[in-house]
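Continuing the series of single-chain predictions for the mutant panel. This is the parent chain; the variants come on the following pages.
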Amino acid sequence: MNDAETITASAEAERRPPRVLQVLPALATGGVERGTVDLAAALAAAGWGSFIASAGGAMVREAERAGATHIELPLASKNPFVMRANVRRLASIIETHGIDIVHARSRAPAWSARAAARRTGAHFVTTFHNAYGAKTAWKRRYNAVMGAGECVIAISEFVARHAIETYGLDPARVRVVHRGIDTERFDPERVSPERMIQLARQWGLPDGLPVVMLPGRLTRWKGHEVLIAALRRLGRRELRCLIVGGGNSRYRGELEAGLKRDPPPCGVGFAEECRDMAAAYMLADIVVSASTEPEGFGRIAVEAQAMGRPVIATAHGGALETVVPGETGWLVPPGDPAALAAAIAEALDLLPEERLALADRAQAHVRQNFTVARMTEQTIAIYEELLGIGARALGSVAA
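Parent structure:
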């Protein structure tokens, strides 16, 4: 390309809308994937070029229907030879499509994406989705790539502090952008009685009994054993506990064996993955998030508040930022069955007018702070800052 062609190409790049490539292992279901698709849709709606590279998955069609271009690459692989080949593949995509910003959302793809961005001169952004463990020097080095972005997005103040303290990041490069949920989907007014009846029948829920629900992946750190111990302490028979979510079948067997040996007075049931969580929340009188390890954000507590359900969460991680104790729900110490039992009793004993007032506060709290629109607007503002365009408000700077 001669000098005149270079000048022409540069001028054309300045005139056209910016183009963003998000990079992650796959587009299966999950919080990272949901945020990727939501942002891809917002970029397309705003007239930006919206691209995603991943190994594919169930959410590809949704992303493409929203106006994004999906490019399939083996980005879920941690094989060093595949990762090295992905550098070349991503660099080719960046050059072919004129990508301005590469946004890496996971560690293995981030290594390839960073090298490709350096090779092509594209801007590089990362998102810390959790407080990644760094118990060994090798793990710390592997995780550190998530702090290599020109701008590092953290999904909560908790994650931002972890990134700064553990990896020595300059706070000026870190932006907090809380995850957002779809408040149209998670709106009690939009859930029909038919959807609730169908789920109640599918799960065999008896009429007239309060339901305590713990949604989430079936894994030990989600605190199922703590909830069951709390139900034993609570001692109430006229109650139904429902554990919603698939996962580790061996762990479920352990839980079921424990329930047989020492059952709580109330019934405890299990439900596999649920595709209509909005209706599921409407069946719950109380939603519990009993995680024994801190969550980076804690989507369950936010979704339940959006549905106007009383929420009890453990007082660490992102829950400290999403639940206002005494106003929109309860926070209890992690791994404390006695405190959890007391909070369940208090929530069950709310008067109808108290439940309504709590629901109103919780819904207003979510709609003000944790919407998809807010998340995508703040992220696009960060892109604009990198590109030197616009003057929109940024997400909060981590202290």
